Amino acid sequence: MGLVRHRRQLNLRLPLPEPSNLLPPFPDPSASSVDTSPAISASDLESLHVLGHGNGGTVYKVRHRRTSAVYALKVVRSGSDASLRRGARREVEVLRRAAGSPNVIRCHGSFEEPCGDEAILLEYMDLGTLESVLRNYGPFGESNLANVARQVLNGLDQLHSRKIIHRDIKPSNLLVNSKMEIKIADFGVSKIMCRMLEACDSYVGTCAYMSPERFDPDSNGGSYNGYAGDVWGLGLTLLELYLGYFPFLDPGQRPDWASLVCAICFGEMPSLPELASGEFRSFVECCLQKESGKRWTVSQLLTHPFVCKDPVSGA
Question: In the prediction, which pLDDT does 79 show?
Answer without folding.
Answer: 64
